[in-house]
Amino acid sequence: MKLKSTNSFINEDFLLENKFSKILYFDFASKMPIIDYHNHLSPKAIYENKKFSNINSVWLDGDHYKWRVMRSLGFDESFITGDASNETKFNKWSEAVPLSSRNPIFHWTHLELKRYFNIDKILQPSSANEIYLETNRIIKKKSPVDLIIESNVKILCTTDDPIDDLKNHIQFSKNENKLKMLPTFRPDLIFNITSDKFLSYISSLSKKTNFSINSYESLIFSLSKRIDFFHDNGCRLSDHGFEYIYAQDYKKENIEKIFINKLSGISPTRKEALMYKSSILYDLCCLYAKKGWTQQFHLGAIRNNNSNLFNTIGPDVGCDSIGDFSQAQKMSSFFNKLNSNGLLTNTIVYNLNPSMNEVFASMIGNFSSSNISMHHGSAWWYLDQKDGIEKQINSLSSVGVISKFIGMVTDSRSFLSFPRHEYFRRIISNIFGNDIKKGLIPNDLDFYGKIIQDICFNNAEKSLKL
């Protein structure tokens, strides 16, 4: 049993249900360049800009979205992250694709085949060999920057650890490029005070700053030096991936004691660890505010659920899921503390639990002002599919101001992921187009076309100051 071979559903009007939607997309949204202000692409791969060796290296290797689909279908791990040949892995993926219908992977797969390789066929076992040969023929002529430029990306922000030397960003900036690649400060490891690797990370940070870290105060000083370094090299964004915002009450003298104890080998209790996380998050956010950065919070994921796969393969392999954590009170307490002290900077909060959409959308309105831009970030991870995007847009429209929305990000490790911006732009054009058709908003295509252009590009350009 197989699908018809022609990929006729990814046509010119894909996701566009009426004439208003089509005008909004083709005359306004599709023309806008891209600021991809959050992704996980390799700065080293972008700077070195080597041509790809095969389709798997850019499409299957490292893409845990695809891995998760294949595991759900019962495929052996050897075909996913194991030692099977590239062609065998591609063939196994071709078996999974038609069975993933109604999963966003099905849409993304065929959008990517169409946009980068001009392939109109459905990927399935009967077409796998032909598509494998054709994609390999084309991709071997392409480099990472080629694909990014083809996608009309103007600015791309990577995700970088504080101890990164940023040499790839620095060298890339010296070249004459149509693309600007900027770092993002992501200090996840400094929060893991209960981890066995925490002390070695502190040692690495100390060496990087050439400053002895023997107290909590010296830790913050060292981090401030890294923030200075990132800022000098174009960074204007920080990012944090948490289950929830850390907002435990604490006293400074207790934090100092907790940190000194850890340096001497005494691990903190669960409550002490939360106090430490709350303290260092607040202190980092104060530093961001002084630099005028935008801070990002990706909230709500339960990570590394499958310990067997984590122990054999590592993190970020498709074993994370949506959490049901309490969010509102912690966000309110934390943002209010910063705001009360004049240290709340521009902020983006991303929500992974769809039941929390209105919670996040309403929270940002509490602290927005003429000086502070608060944003409900784009539908993220499990929610960056048609239903999730529509729900996020609708909730933000209902309890916030959709015209100030700063649009889509890929949040991806794949150089073929940029059609997700097209996917988003078609969806939001269709939402506005349907509202016009139903008489819910005026039939003023120029006005709403401008709003859509702002959402796709202009708002991010203005707010993030990249």
Task: Report the average pLDDT across residues.
Answer: 94
Under CATH, the homologous superfamily of the largest domain reads: Metal-dependent hydrolases
CATH-assigned fold name of the largest domain: TIM Barrel
Number of domains: 2
Rg, alpha carbons: 23 Å
**What is the straight-line distance between the termini?**
50 Å
The helix tally amounts to: 19
Describe the structure.
- Helices cover about 50% and strands about 10% of the residues.
- The model has no long low-confidence stretch (mean pLDDT about 95).
- It has helices at about 20-25, 45-50, 55-60, 65-70, 85-100, 105-115, 125-140, 145-150, 165-175, 200-210, 215-230, 250-265, 270-290, 305-310, 330-340, 355-365, 385-400, 420-440, 445-465; strands at about 35, 155, 180, 235-240, 295-300, 300, 320, 345-350, 375.
- Helix 5 (about 85-100) crosses helix 7 and helix 17 crosses helix 18.
- The chain is built from 19 helices and 9 strands.
- It has a 4-stranded parallel beta sheet with strand order 4-5-8-9, with helices on one face. Strands 1-2-3 form a 3-stranded parallel beta sheet.
- The chain has 2 domains: about 20-45 and about 145-465, Metal-dependent hydrolases (TIM Barrel, Alpha-Beta Barrel), CATH 3.20.20.140; about 50-140, Orthogonal Bundle (uronate isomerase, domain 2, chain A), CATH 1.10.2020.10.
- The chain is an alpha/beta fold and about 475 residues long.
- About 45% of the residues are buried.
- The longest helix has 22 residues, at about 270-290.
- It starts with 18 loop residues before the first helix and ends with a helix.
